[in-house]
Structures are given as structure tokens and as C-alpha cells.
Write a structure and sequence with these properties.
The complex is a heterotrimer of chains A (640), B (149) and C (176). With 149 residues, chain B is α+β, with helices and mostly antiparallel strands. Chain B has helices at 3-32, 39-45, 133-148, and strands at 34-37, 52-59, 65-66, 72-78, 83-89, 101-108, 114-121. In chain B, β3 (65-66) and β4 form a beta hairpin. Chain C has a single domain (46-174), classed as Glutaredoxin (3-Layer(aba) Sandwich), CATH 3.40.30.10. Chain C is built from six helices and seven strands. Classes of the chains: A alpha+beta (640), B alpha+beta (149), C alpha/beta (176).
Chain lengths: 640, 149, 176
Amino acid sequence: MMAEAGLAALWLAAAMALLQLAGGLSLIGDGKLASLIRPAAMVQGALCVFSFCALIWLFWITDLSVLLVASNSHIDKPAIFKIAGTWGNHEGSMLLWVTVMALSGAAIALLEKRIDAKTLGATLGVQAVVSLGFFAFLLFSSNPFERLVPAPAQGAGLNPLLQDIGLAFHPPTLYIGYVGLSVAFSFAVGALLTRQVGPAFARAMRPWVLGAWIFLTLGITAGSYWAYYELGWGGWWFWDPVENASLMPWLAATALLHSVSVLATRNALRAWTIMLALVAFAMSMAGTFLVRSGVLTSVHSFAVDPERGAFILTLMLVYTGAAFVLFALRIGTVRQGEPFQLVSREGAIVANNIFLSVILGIVLIGTLYPLAAEALGDKISVGPPYFNKATVPIALLLMLALLLGPMLRWRRDEIARHKYWLVGFFAIILWSGVAVWQFAPGVGIFPTLGIAFALALAVASFVPLKGRNLLRTPLPIYGMVIAHFGLAVSVFGMASESGFSKESLTALSPGQSAQVAGWTVKLDDVNPAIGDNWVGIQGEMLANRGGKTFALHPQSRQFFQPEMQTSEAALLTRWNGQLYAVLAQPDERTGKWQVRLWWKPYVTFIWFGGALVALGGLIALLGRMLRRPRKPAKNNWASE
Amino acid sequence: MKPKHQRLVLALVAFVALIGAGFIAAAALRDEASYFYTPTTLAKAQVEPGKAIRLGGMVQKGSIVRGTDGVSITFTVQDQEGEQNVAYRGITPDLFVEGSGVVADGRMRADGVFVAESLLAKHDENYVPKELADIDMTAAQQTKDTLSK
Amino acid sequence: MTRPWLLWLPLAVIAFIGGLAIYGLLVPKDELVRSAMVGQKLPQFALAPATAGVQGLASSDMADGKPRLLNIFASWCIPCKAEAPHLETLKKAGVEIDAIAVRDRPEDVAVFLDQFGNPFRRIGADNEMAVQLMLGSSGVPETYVIGSDGKISYQHIGDIREEHVPMLLEKLAEAK
């Protein structure tokens, strides 16, 4: 019964979305149905939550008469994985998607009081259109509540990948980010429709962009760490299509986050902000399409389905196509924003936006190029060398802009006012650059500059706090400081890892040792190891540096279904880096074991910095929400 | 700057940036996009040493030679008409055996040996590269020939 | 706006991406690795029994002029468990089924047969995947239809589901 109830709730929710759309459309005419919009959005949210809970319930009790449960769960599955199994598959994750989307609509309907009623109606109307597409997708091609007759006795096997708790939470994190961008899209199109592209609109949209961006940041950071420890290749970013699919929306969202601040605070960059909101949504849809359709091959395995890919592609083309047509026709009639000087906070943010857009363009071209080449009859793969070579210089320029940007005044400023800071930053860059170059001449230009810029940025990120009463500084300022500092930390980790990693690849007999970067790693023994659905070998290693000894247990696992081999790298984390050990198959002739060791200095800074960036976003979001005015906004943007 | 011009300037800056991105991408792609070759097409193509390419084919029977250090190997990749010697240093995939399909990312060395930076064995079910699908059609026949010799 | 054409640029970019994506979806993307052996004579091989109490499998065992199925499976493969009842159905329909266990251990095969039934006439052990490669099979489970002329007439990739049973029966009838 629960499955039917869940499905019924889903159909009702779709009907509510239709009602919400009708209300939005009536705004063109007499607006008689406009009073329906808010209640419809709220009921829709409640219905979707009910539907999602119904699916969780079905997974919890392992109702094998439901196809989705039978094919994705198992009676013997641990409880946490049963629940995670709800969204660990295509249908369930799409239900999560529409649920979060409907909840966002309900939240807007309930809480949003800053923008005028007509723009709000238009926004929710657009949101209803977007939701309807996803409802159609869910109900017609990915029904999560489909029954299976007759019910099987025990359900399909355990997918080993879903046994990883990190992976169970990674896709939904990204999806929530994507939904946030779709809300921003609805706001942007709503504002375009009513021509109310101003600070009120920007302030209403900003929390959604910020929230989406926090989730995307967390998702990318976690995904990178997962690839690092799970794939056993010692890398943390592979420029794989699936990774790029999550990076592109993040780049667009980061640009949008900055430009929306300009619009909220200074009423400038109107057209540009609207366009970025549309681009960010397009990128999130394109990302979902790339991951789900299997058009590009990836090392990350996903259940791919071209038909569903076609559905997502259609949605993406219809929504973004219509929105960009509206943009082209309408934006000329939106009044121009406030002017500003080139040297100003606005100018710095424009620079930020342009650099981010260029990186986005390069990543997009590199990701789609193999497809374009295939259309012309060439078989090509584009790998890390391209992406590193093309994006790193732009990213370094972006960091330079970031040194000065946050301390510039709004509207107009003079470089001369900041000359002491500039000299200071230049001194840090020069000193650390020369130091790195002296210390390790062969390290390459990018890591050297990366470390130098990161050190300067670490100092520069705190400058906006100078001269402020720290107790009365608004939370968003702290958020910005922490996020920028987090970026410096992360870049430092990346540069250090890519420039200073030491590797040792040897074949060892039990009892023999290998050296890497001052560590002596002894292979004591290799023992068989057995898990639920894999067999493998486990190395017993002892790592010694400076008299302290640590045990390491790298494994090589052979999974049965899907048939695959994974290397469980052993990681030894010290404050200043990680020792990363991989054990591979034996050499038949000599009986030696292949052992690969890395010393990766400060590598953990990459993800620690990423987490700081997300934390900064969270603090800023909290600050915005706590300061939310109860009454319609006073026009106080100038005082910020 | 006059307000009227500001929007125009910003739009043009954005446009120039977009074109710039295109140029950077095109320049980097020319150097770094790796084309897919089989031993036969590689022999005809005259690829300059040091350029990133992909090589796909079958590991020739009896060609795998393991180095004394236990971590480097050399082997020959073959297809219907061509052969290519490959050197690799690192951990080989589990299913990398003689007679299996392989895709190697790497670069040509001046002496005509292909130096692989990473290897992908075809029977890694997770990852059958698109490029290899064509070769598979003939792989079975070849394996049969090799085995029946 | 003084440069209206510039405003259509994003739309053009989206249209281009869309075009590429549509192309990507439309080109036949058969990620399955089809065997080149379909239509050819079954290669020669002889395999030891996969476990105690079953007979080994040689290509000569299948040359009695009857159409049959050759199933490639492994005890560690989960879809193989899923297809077991459907193989049973095929056997009940009078089909002779031979099997090859790939990269397996005798004791595991015994447990598998015990748990999921044994619809097989003979089961050969292919520990080095030599015969699997020879047949042009790149994974488990796969099922081949061998005609009465000794030629491979059809290759089924992946597990046999309920809906495949009539289709396989039809292929067997054609292969007479």
C-alpha cells in the first residue's frame, strides 16, 4: 500500500505544480488565480516529502515487491545502507531531486517577503515549469514505486560501491547543489519576466546561490578525497568527465555568487548576473546529462541509460533555450545598473567573473572536444595535461585579483591607497618564490607560483578585517575571509602535492624495505584478507621516520560483482603530509610484491581548505539568514 | 567612463574573454589532445616523439618481459597488421595478460619505443574504452589463431 | 543595447552543446563487446570438469548435431545467480545446456550448483579464461546458441531474464 500512496502523492504533487503554474500564468492577465501560487507550492512540498518518506520506508522494511527495492537492496544489508539505498540509484535520486526542489518552492512561498508579489509569482511559476519537467521524467520514465510481480525472495546482490558510506552521500550532495541552482534560475527568469532585476531580487536569490554553492563545494571536495583514497593512483583530481561535470556548475556558481553580491549591494552587473544564473543552471543540467547518459566514457562507473539522458537533455535544451531567448529579447529593456570605476570592488569582481568564466569555457571545451572530434571522425581523448596547462595560469591570475579585490572600496578606489599592501604581497610572493626555487629548483613554475600566491593570499584574506571591530563585524565578512583563506590553504596543498611528492616504486620480498622521503617502509608480510563480497591480500608494513614506527595495511581487493579490482591504499596522516602505500600483485618469478609508496607533503590541506571554503559559505549564509528583515526590505543597501 | 559606455565595455570584455578562452583551449588542445592509434595506424602516422597519444591493441603472446627491478616491463602490442614495442614502469592491471586487449596512454620515445604512463586492461569490465570496441571484433579471431598455433 | 547580436551568443553556445549531445546520443553506442565468432564454427577446446561430480566439456561433446546453449558463468558472479531459474526453465523446455565456469574454484562451483540448481549437462573449468577469450566473450554471464551445424549462431550478453527465454527458444529453433 505504501508504494501506491507514495506514487499517488507524487501525482498529486505534479497536479499542485500545474496549479502553481496556472497561478503564475494568470499574472499575465487579471491575476485571479495568483492567490493559489503560495498554497500550491507549500502543499507540493509536503506531498513530495511524504512520497520520499514512503520510499525510505519501503527500503527500511525491504519491501521486495517494489522493483526498485528488489533491484537495489538486500535483506541482509546493514540498516544505514538500506536507507542510503533509497537515493543510491537513479529513480530514488531523482525523487530526492524533486523533493528538494518542491521543498525549496515551499520555502520561497513561505518565507520570501523581499520581492514584490508579481515577481515572486513569476518566480514560483517558472519553478513550477521546471518541476513539471522533472515530475514528468520521474513519473513516465523513472517511476520509483513500480511493483514487481511476483516478488523475489531476497533481492539483488550488494553493490560494493554503495557499501561505501562516502559514496552514498556524495551524489545527493551534488544534487542538492544543482537544485539550488535551479531555484536561482527560477528567480532570474522570474525577474526577467517582470523586469524587476534589482537589489531586492538579488538579495532574495543570494541565499539560494550561496546554499547551492556550499553543497557543490562540499560535494567536489568529498568526491576528490574519495577518488584519492579509493582509486589507488595517488591522484586527487583526474579531469574525468564526471569530475568536470561537477566542477563546471561550481565555477559558474562561484562567479554568480560574487556578481549577485554586486547586484545586491551596489545595483550593478544586472544583465551579467542574470546570464550567470542561466549558465549555472545550464551547466548543472549538462553535468547531470553527461553523467547519466554515458555519452562520454569515465573511470567512475555509473549506471548509464541513453534514454534517460535524452530526457534530461530535452529538459535542459527547452529550459535554457527558452530562458536565453527571453534573455536576448528582454535584457535590453532592463535598466542599466549603477556605474563604477575600473579600480573598485566591482571591477575586481568583474575580473573574478571573467577569469572564472574563462576557466569554465576551457573545461567545457576540453570535456566536449572528444565528442566533437568523434563527429568529425577522429578518436581523441583529452587528459590532464590539457586541463592543467590551460586552466592553471588563469587560476593563478584569479588568485592575483583575489589578493587585492576584497580590500578595494565599492564604486571607486585608488591603487595608490593600497600601495603598502601591494608591496607587502609582492615581497611575500618574491621571497617565497625564490625560496622554493632555491630549495627545489626542479619543481616547475606552476607549483612554485602556486605556493607563493597561496602564502600571499593567506595573509591577504585577513586584510578585510583590518580596522574593524571584530565583535561587530557582520558574519558574511567573516564568511568571506574564511572562504578566501580556505582557498589559499587548498591551493597550497595542491601546489605542494604536485611539486614535492616523492614516489618510490619497488618490488619487495617480505622483510625488505623501501625508502621514500626520509621514511623507511618495511614489508613485514602479506596475508590473505576476506570481506563480504571480495577476497584479497593485505600487506603488513611498518613505516619508520625519526625513530617513530607506524603500521600500514594496504589491501588489494578483488570484487566479484561488478568484477573489479580495487586498491585500498593505506594512508598515514601526519600534520605535514601523508604517506600513501599501495600493494599490488606479486611477480610470479621472484615472489616479490610490487609496492608503490608516495610521500605527499601537505596533501590534506587540499580537502581541509575545501572544507574551510564551504564553512565560510555556511557562515555567510547564517549571517544573511539571521539578519533577514522581518518587514519588506528597507532600501539600506548603500550602508553595507 | 560614461555610464552609457560601461555596459558596452563590459560586454566586449566578456566577449574578448570568451574568445581568449577559445584560443587558450585550442592552443593547448593542439599540444595535448591524445589521438588514438593502433599499431597499424601508428606506423603510418609518423607521430613525433613526446606527444601524448593513446595506443590500443592486443598484448602479443610471449612478448611480456619483466625487468629485474620487478616493476618495469616491456611488451609488444599488435593488431591485424602492425606491432609496437611498449615500455612501462609501474603496477600492471590485474587482468593484463598475454592475449588480452590493452589501452596505453603515453608518448613515443625517439628510439621508436612507446613509453606508457598508464595501462588499462580491456577486461576491466568497468572500463571498455570506446576506442577499443572496433578492435574487439577481430580480437577473438586473433586469440583463436594464437592459441591454436 | 548596442550589440544585440552579442546577446544571442549564449543561446548559440547552448545550441551547439545541445547539437553535440544529440549527436552523442544518436550514434550507435554499443558498449557491449560483440564476439566476432558469431556465424563461425565453434573453436576446438577441451576443459576439465569444473567440480567433482560433473563432466568436463570439450568442443567435440557438442558436435552431436543438436542445437544447444553454451553458458559462460562463474560462481562469484551475481547476475549468474539471477539467471539460474531461467536456465532451469530452458532446460525444462528440453534445451541442452553446457557450461563453462570462468576463473572459479571447484568448491565454489559445487556450492553454487547446490544453491541455484544445476541445469547443465557438462561444466568445463576455464581457469585462464582461454576458452572465454577464444569465444570472444568479455564477461560473465554470456550465453551462446550453438547450431546443429556446429556454428555459433547467436551471442547473448549479460544475464538471461524472463523475457529472453522465448527469444532464446526461437533462436534455438532457427539453429536447427
